Amino acid sequence: MSRHTVILAGAAAALVAAPFLTPPYFMHLIIQILLWSFIYTAWSIMGRFGFVSLGHGAFVGVGAYVPALLWNYYDLTPWVGIPLGVALSALLGLVIGYPCFRLRVVGHYFALVTLALGQVVMLSVVAARDITGGSLGFTPRAAGHSWYALQFPEKGYFYAIALALWLGGLAVWRAIDRGIGREALDAISEDEEAAAAIGINVMREKLRVTVISAALTALGGAALGQYLMYLNPETLSGIAVSLQIVFAAIVGGTYTMLGPTVGSLLTISLNEGLRVAFGTSFIGAANTIYGILLIFFIIFMPRGIVGTLGDLAVRRPAKPAPVG
Amino acid sequence: MDIYLLEAIINGILLGGVLALLALGLNLIFGVIDVVWIAYADLVMLGMYVIYWLHAELGWPLLLACAVAIAAVAVLGVLVHVLIISPILGSAPINQLLATGGLLFFLQSFATLLFGTEFRNLGLRLPIIELGEVYISSARLMAFAAALVGAVALYLFLKRTFIGTAIRAIAQDRDIVGLMGVDQRRIYLLTSAIGGALAGLAACLLALQYDVHPFIGNTFGPLIFMICVLGGLGDMIGGFIAAFIISQIIAIGGYYSSTELSYVFAFTLFIVLMFVRPRGILVR
User: Is B166 exposed, middle or buried (0-12, 13-18, 19+ CB in 10 A)?
Assistant: First the structure.
């Protein structure tokens, strides 16, 4: 058995054993880390090609609110509600993406248009406070342990769901990375005219990653809502969430499969660790350090932790590469 | 005309003045240095805290507190450029935008750390002016007047002075200006200081009207970016006009529906206008 297989088997065993050995508080952290990793990975699916969206909070919010509202007001099971939210989110991605790509709204402008999209969703939720509870938040009607309502008071179930989503997200990332589309998109982000000239359907490739990214982000938002059983426009859709998504992905490394996961692991445990260390009397301490770290990362390590480690590994190979 | 609608329109114009001032500062920085300071509204927040702290806590006279706040935010502007922007001046513009996004997190949580999340106000009660049946807050009127004076002063500075001309020249062609013997680094520092000072001035004007809290930047920050982009990033007159369009939408929309819905409408209009007129409302 190769070393690689052993590591993989060990990791798999640890992930399976985790819910039986971990105390509930850490379980709660692990589930959040997995769900946010999934969302960050979904962001990086388009972020890595240079489409830096500052509005992914919009997709998280749509994904979380649509099934919860349908459940509370129409008794519609999340098994139908979640696909509807995901579809709506994908549509939203399409409606914003198509004109942006058509009219070459890129860079700053793309970032600001998506920022506005996040604000539109967040403020719409606040404005519809009679239905959504506005800034006070929204609680899906509790149904106890129910497959129909996708509500499980025991953390083990959500651990399994979060793990499955996360692995699924990585699989999609990998499929896009391995697929022919990636070559096309890399070519597009290098030189769009040249890419079009050699016969790449520029628009289709861009829209494909945008729709996939929006849909997966919404799915992550839905899972987060079902798990936390509390939705708030500020914590799901505001500018802070959208920036949090971008930063965690960048700190971890946008261009590598596990980068966003490392970003999520680092930022959430940093946040929790500082919160526990300083207590509530010192609110803000965690984010103060977090903000400084972000600035450092962007200045000194724009490729993120995983990306930079990867570069180091390439530059200093442990043994000479085999000839051939 | 309905008297309340008239009041809403007047308040919109008065708010537009302050937004225009902020848009000018952001536009100046964008036009000259080619960077979007995502944390611009949070510099304003910090300025408001300086005024609150000096005036309400330490009992300094208001004007002195305002002067110190303007100077402090100007220095902060220079620090932002020296510490955050200049190390990555050569990298992709989006990285610079994101680095100032890190600054946004830092400033908001730093303010939370220092002052807590309570809403604080200066405790000033400025008189209400009565014009017939229309009531106008004199704080807003003063803010509007001061914002206009600030905008005109900036305009004259850029048009009439040598350094102002150099700043405008850099905004037009940064490579050629270097060959003409203009020190680009110095111009960048000066621009950052002016941008900061404008944020400080806006902080004085907003502190008269609103309570300050660590996240106040989130409420009007996105608005300012929108205004700049609508006017055409870097186009100061366009930004000035866009500020009044947006503030009218918010004021009149808030009159007919709710404040949030009027914001939703303003942001949606922004997205649509980006597609119809991507280079700003004045450019065809």
Answer: buried
State the Cα–Cα distance between residues B73 and A193, nearest whole angstrom: 44
Chain B residues close to A255, C-beta within 8 Å: none
Q: B87: nearest CA in chain A?
A: A299
In the prediction, which pLDDT does A282 show?
65
3-class secondary-structure state, position A146: strand
Q: What is the ipTM of this complex?
A: 0.83
In one-letter notation, the amino acid at residue B141 is L
Of B98, B103, B275, which to mutate for an interface test with A (greatest number of A Cβ within 10 Å)? B98
List of residues 6+ apart from A93 with CB closer than 8 A: A59, A210, A211, A213, A214, A215
Q: Do the Cβ atoms of B74 and B200 come closer than 8 Å?
A: yes
The Cα B276–Cα A99 span in angstroms is 10
**pTM higher than 0.90 for the full model?**
no
With CB atoms and an 8 Å threshold, state whether B267 touches A116: yes
Q: Which residues of B touch A238 (CB under 8 A)?
A: 218
Q: Could you give phi then psi for residue B212, rounded to 5 degrees?
A: -105, 140
